[in-house]
Structures are given as C-alpha cells and as structure tokens.
Amino acid sequence: MRPSASLPRALFVTLLAAAAFVVIPQATAGTNAHARAQWGTCPAGNAAIVNPTLAVNPGGATATATFKIARYCSNIQVNLASYDAPAAVFALPQTLIDYDAKPLNGSTRYRYNSGATYTLTTKVSPCFYQLDLVRGPVIVDLTTTTQYGDRKLQWLNGGQACVTDNSPPQCQLTSTITGPPKKIQVTVQDPQSGLQSVDYNVKNGSVSPDAGPFTTNGDASISGSADFAAGLTTPLLLTVTKTNQSLGSRVVFTVDNVAGLKTICDPVVPAAVHLSPFAAFAKVLAAMMKLVML
Fold first, then answer.
1. Which of 2, 123, 226, 291 is the most exposed place for a label (fewest CB within 10 A)?
2. Which residues pair with 215 in a beta bridge?
3. How far apart are CA 156 and CA 159, in angstroms?
C-alpha cells in the first residue's frame, strides 16, 4: 500500500507545535521575572516618606523641610504647616498662618523620582509657633479633638510671647557728613516688635548695609533693601553716600516692623554748595581779615 502524501506534512506540523511548546513558556517566564524586578510595593503610612527633616532658617522668619519618597510610591501627599501657638512647648489651640504645598486641599503630590529630594518652605510665627511636616492634608485649627496624630513626620515648637506694639518704627536723620563724599546717616529702630524690613529708593547715591540685589529704575533711582536679621530691636544705622558730588540726591526709606506697622521717611542728602567768584573772594577776604585781627 502507498503511503499517504499528507503524512510528512502532518509530521512537520506536530514537530512545529512541540517546538512552540518549549520556547514560548521560557520567553513568558523571562518577561515575568523582568516585571517583578521593575515593580514592587509602596511602604504603608509614614514609611512612604523617607529622610524627613525640618528646621527654622536663620533669622527665624521661615522654616524649611526636606524629604524623599520611597521607591514604588506615587501620589503621596506631604504638607508643611505653620501655626500660631499659645506657648513655646506643645499647647492647644493653634491657628494655621501659612503652609506649603499649596493649595490647602493638598492637590500637590509626590512620587519616587530616582531618589529626588523635595523641599517645602513656610513662614514662622513671630510669636510662639508650631511647625508640622505631615503626611496628608493640612488642618486649619488644631484642637484637643482635631490633630494630626500619627500623620506627623517632623515637628518643632518654640518662639516667644508677642509684644503688643501700637507704635510704628522710628526713622530719623542722626548725622550729616559733608565729605567728600557727602553722606548722611539715618537710624531706624523698633524696640518693641522689632524691624521686619527696611526698603529704600535712592537717586544719585548708595545705601549701606545693603542686602542686594538692587533694581535700577527708569528715573535712574535705585531700589533695594537694607541687610539685617528680621526681628531686630536694636538701632540699625544706615549710611547714604552721594555718588555725584555736584548733583542733588534724595532717599526714601520704607520701614516695616514685625507688628505690621510702617514708617516712611525721606531725609535729604546735603547738596553741593556752589559759590560765585565774588562770594568766593569775599569768603577768602574775610578769612584773611580774621587772621590779621588775631
């Protein structure tokens, strides 16, 4: 009997199916192993936030927090909240004065990004304060029944009692130096709540100490801020130096204190004195006559 012509073809199909059975599972296993190496589980709770730090910056006006997000984590909400507090140690109630990240509903979220460090900065109360770096949303009013509990990552308490300040800061001309170069010295002070900022606008002159950078305006005047630590209660001496001695100068200081009160003062830098030839001769003659009389 003659063999059927379809037998070789059937044998070929059978061998091909067997080869597929061997190769395909190996490829699938390799893909799954690769996937397991790329994906993992985000740690629960506060463990999703790594290496949190919190510190009040020099001067005490702001605070900064840093943190990282654990691997495999995304959509993690972290906030830095700042409160007015009734004491320098933990005490309630407390009222929110500033926070980061904004907006308040906490729409800013973080994810693992190759170990990137995130930074949040907020204002600090000039009185007693509490700072809370927390997981999740911000609480506006902290009370005995509304607190962060185990959502706190880092926290700080401190500060001092607020001084009731109803007096605006002081600003007065205290010295005139004829030079050259011509200068004036202005003393600003707020002995109660302390100085918050001293901004200036000067034309044909410079101010020191200057915090920099300054801005040159369209009228050739310069705007900037004095250099000092916010909350200063001792006198701050500012020196205004005329640039071109033959031209007039002007300066305006805007002084704010911690209590939010403001003083604007505009002392005058001495102008150059120009004598006519006759006046100059008369001045010399008078000096000579004085010497003769002596």
1. 2
2. 223
3. 10
pLDDT, one tens digit per residue, over 234-262 is 999 999 999 999 998 999 999 999 888 99
pLDDT higher than threshold 80 for residue 98: yes
Domains of the chain and any CATH numbers = 45-158 (2.60.40), 170-269 (2.60.40)
H or E segment to which residue 65 belongs: strand 62-69
10 phi and psi, to 5 degrees? -65, -40
CA distance 38 to 119: 27
Q: Are strands 141-142 and 215-216 parallel, antiparallel or unpaired?
A: unpaired
Beta bridge partner(s), residue 183: 177, 241
Maximum C-alpha span of the chain: 160
83, two tokens: 């409160």
Which amino acid belongs to residue 4? S
Question: What's the confidence (pLDDT) of residue 259?
Answer: 83
Write down the pLDDT at residue 21: 41
